[in-house]
Amino acid sequence: MLLNPPLQPILHTPRSLFWRVTLVSLLLLLAWDASGLDRSMARWFGDANGFAWRENWFVVHVLHNSAQNLGWIWLGGMVLAVFWPVGVLRRLTRGERAGMVGGTLLALLAIIWMKLASHTSCPWDLAEFGGTANYVSHWAWGVHDSGGGHCFPGGHASTGFALLAGYFGLRAKAPRAARWWLAGALLTGFGLGLVQQVRGAHFMSHTFWTAWICWTVAGLAEMGMRRLTAARPA
């Protein structure tokens, strides 16, 4: 069915695209949780003896520690660029650049808060993989699994996914750069999440939910900033 011409621009605005992506990905995530594939994927890398790659030097020091440090360096560069912009960031106002940093920090804080509140333990803590904890869904809030907890969502992957705020900050004035930023943030986040999956530190759903939370928080933060800017007297 063809859409009426007045509706076409509404359904293709950045805001409507944000809500469509957010809602569709939420449904896919809920389907993933219901599928039970988390534990099946964990068994690709671990067994009753644990996870063989958990303490691998290259995985731990290069793919884990060094990659995470690069993410923090990138965030530090974004902070400096608020006052001393370079490249495409010069197209943005100082307030818009500050909004990118603010959205990134809000996404990180959301992940940190959820991890602190969660009783979900990591795969390597489960009895199935040589630990002592029982498997409990990460949505069973308040239910202890006899493990260390605080493993949901994925903190390591959030180092990449929190940078999605840069996409929202750039898409109006530098759409091509925004798409590259989006790709970089997603590749970094999923790459870091895969590292933790291999090590037994997280289930795949932890990475997926981290991406969704960071995307949603960053998008809402950018909308809020624009509303405040529009309401401010000239």
Question: What this model shows, in words?
Answer:
- The chain is mostly helical and 234 residues long.
- It has a domain at 74-118 and 153-234.
- The chain has nine helices and two strands.
- The chain has helices at residues 7-11, 14-35, 37-42, 57-83, 94-117, 155-161, 165-170, 175-199, 204-231, and strands spanning 46-47, 50-51.
- Strands 1-2 form a two-stranded antiparallel ribbon.
- Strand 1 (46-47) and strand 2 (50-51) form a beta hairpin.
- The radius of gyration is 20 Å and the shape is globular.
- The model is unreliable at 1-12 (pLDDT under 50).
| Major sheet characteristics | 2 strands, antiparallel
Assign the structural class, choosing from mainly alpha, mainly beta, alpha/beta, alpha+beta, or little secondary structure: mainly alpha
User: What is the rounded Rg?
Assistant: 20 Å
Tell me the overall shape: globular
Beta strand count: 2
Largest sheet strand order: 1-2
> What share of the residues lie within helices?
55-70%
H/E element order: HHHEEHHHHHH
Strand content: under 5%
SSE blueprint:
Blueprint (H helix, E strand, L loop, with lengths): L6 H5 L2 H22 L1 H6 L3 E2 L2 E2 L5 H27 L10 H24 L37 H7 L3 H6 L4 H25 L4 H28 L3
Antiparallel strand pairs: 1-2
Helix pairs in contact: 2-9, 4-5, 4-8, 5-6, 5-9, 6-8, 6-9, 8-9
Provide a short characterization of the protein structure:
The protein has 234 residues and is an all-alpha fold.
